[in-house]
Amino acid sequence: MGKWTPRDIADQTGRTFVVTGANSGLGAEAATALGAAGATVILACRNVDKAGPVAARIGANAEVRRLDLADLSSVREFADGVEQVDVLINNAGVMAVPKSTTVDGFEMQFGTNHLGHFALTGLLLDQIADRVVTMSSAVHRMGSISLDDPNWQRRRYNRWSAYGQSKLANLMFAYELDRRLSASGSSVKSLAAHPGYARTGLQSHTQSVWDHVMVVGNLFGQSAAMGALPELYAATDDSVASGSYIGPDGPFEQRGHPKVVGSSGKSHDRAVAASLWAESERLTGVTYRFGK
Fold this sequence. Notes:
CATH class: Alpha Beta
Strand content: 15-25%
Order of helices and strands: EHEHEHEHEHEEHEHHEEH
Number of domains: 1
Strand order of the largest sheet: 3-2-1-4-5-6-9-10
Shape: globular
CATH topology: Rossmann fold
Oligomer: single chain
CATH architecture: 3-Layer(aba) Sandwich
Radius of gyration: 17 Å
């Protein structure tokens, strides 16, 4: 395969995409590229006002709807309003924020990045015709899943360890969803992607000294448009296999064009993935049903 770019996206006319966190950064770039390819794009955002300019840039085939992944009642309300979708892109996320909790009492990063998207996907699964793409991160390699304390209620909180856990959970969810869809005979695909190091603004909201460190790092990062390529490739290319993980092709997967990449040994632990799935269903109250 040559260097894949948005020019390689096939005509998406007649197809509907839901992109979470599409008001800025990677989500805005992905939504814009999909709209340019003819897709109907639902911008699922907590701050609908900030999503307005992105929708205006896309045009008449863009729609903004409120979705707060840190509030399961908002997730349910959003899902109830979606009748049919071809592709769900679980793009939104928070990174290395101070210790705080979601509306439902989950640690903010695990609750938003993983549990919110887990619930959303489960509630929409019957409406999804083609595939689910879940964004992870190279930082998943730093993560470990604490099944006994995923919400950091007993451990001393570490913002980067919590972020790593949430991104490892995203990746393990994508792999486990692929296995369960396949076992049920479903044609729906589940894929994961990561952007490398992209200048998105996400890095400047940690409310710590890292905000200043990341500003320097951003001088060497790739653009948000380039960072969005892996999720766009995963979301639109018919040749990509379910269960694949897509990232940049450059050194250390920090920048470049999309390709299939590997992931940590922990991400392939099926026993932990199954336990994480069961715990996620328990915490969110969303039970997946396959084979309908």
